Amino acid sequence: MKYLDEYRDEELAQKLIKEIARIVTKPWVIMEVCGGQTHSIVKYGLDRMLPPEIELVHGPGCPVCVTSLEMIDKAHAIASREDVIFCSFGDMLRVPGSHSDLLVLKSRGADIRVVYSPIDCLKIAKANPGKKVVFFAIGFETTAPANAMSVWLAKQQGITNFSVLVSHVLVPPAMAAILQSPQNRVQAFLGPGHVCTVMGYNEYFPLASTFKVPIVITGFEPMDLLHGVLMTVKQLEEGRAEVENQYSRVVNEAGNRTAMDLVYKVFEVSDRKWRGIGSIPQSGYKLKSEFKDYDAELIFNVDKIDTQESSVCISGLVLQGVKKPQQCSAFGKQCTPEHPLGATMVSGEGACAAYYTYGRFLEKIEMAVPE
Questions:
Q1: Percent of the chain with pLDDT over 90
Q2: Which of 278, 312, 336, 355 has its CB 3.0 to 4.6 Å from that of 325, i.e. a possible disulfide?
Q3: Above 70 in pLDDT, residue 88?
Q4: What is the rounded CA–CA span in Å between residue 103 and residue 89?
Q5: CATH number, domain 1-314, options 1.10.260.40, 3.40.50.720, 3.40.50.11740, 3.40.50.300
């Protein structure tokens, strides 16, 4: 298929791998930031094709995975109300909270609906004036413009029975938190292509300069990722720490100004809790004060929530690139997509789900069987 097959070309892949092997002289640890990149890497086995000196570790680039347990439990508390129609993207329904998930609540009679756009919620609100319609507004900078638009339109149209439960997170502060951690092993990043499509990559220059790490904004196809690794290894071997753009067919330095302006009209930067990681200063968005009438946390007074995380799940360490899914004692055993202990096994972009989907849990089990 034109515009796709050329990014999955085996001959070109081998050339890129040979060039990486030719220039690498020492071990390097590179983190791919985005969960979509993780899935492509595992699906195509790119990490296994690379020279043994190159280790790819998986970052906190899955918005479903990093939505805090506290926020999940707040969503459950709101969705359980009889006067609420709770709307969400489908991948949030099976994310485990402290006691259940949204799909279980739906089976018990809660009015929980899957939508493809937050704008759909405005139609639902108009059609159900006696109900309070709440949208679970999660995601990185990528989904922020559409979520901002829903709030903006609701205010412009005078829709008063619509609100959003905001759990937006930002990539650059998370990368900084990883680099500042005493457990950090990351020496370079494959940057998040989709996020940078919206936001550009100006914010990454201070990271590269302050922490002396190469950052290569990278796409999601096999050729994108191998090219991104090659560009990153070149920087590492040459002692450079720069921001480069592999994904130039989609991303430019300035980003999408129209989308960014809309985000900044509705949201402001705030501290945010990340699941498995903790609170990261100035790492999220919250509604500006002029839009407080659309803030579900304020409307439903769900500030105080007691949470209970699984004692076995190591998803936080996976999200920070400290551990791989196979290093979890529950992986592929107590924790499966049918019975997940953590969000990284549920989400379509989660590292644990990727390893499970493409059979790497089977290898672990086989290795455990004595000869």
A1: 71
A2: 355
A3: yes
A4: 12
A5: 3.40.50.11740
- Report how far residue 351's alpha carbon sits from residue 335's, in angstroms, rounded to the nearest whole number: 13
DSSP letter for each residue of 29-46 = EEEEEEHHHHHHHHHHTH
Which residues have a Cβ under 8 Å from the Cβ of 362 and sit 6 or more positions away?
Answer: 332
Token pair for 100: 């259940």
Nearest to 37 by CA among 313, 227, 299, 290: 227
Torsions phi, psi for 191 (to 5 deg): -75, 165
Collapsed DSSP state (helix, strand, coil) of residue 85: strand
Residue for token pair 């707040």: 74
pTM of this prediction?
0.90
Tokens 């040459």 — which residue?
A: 238
- Residue 334: CB atoms within 10 A of its CB come to 14
Where in the chain do CATH 3.40.50.11740 domains reside?
1-314
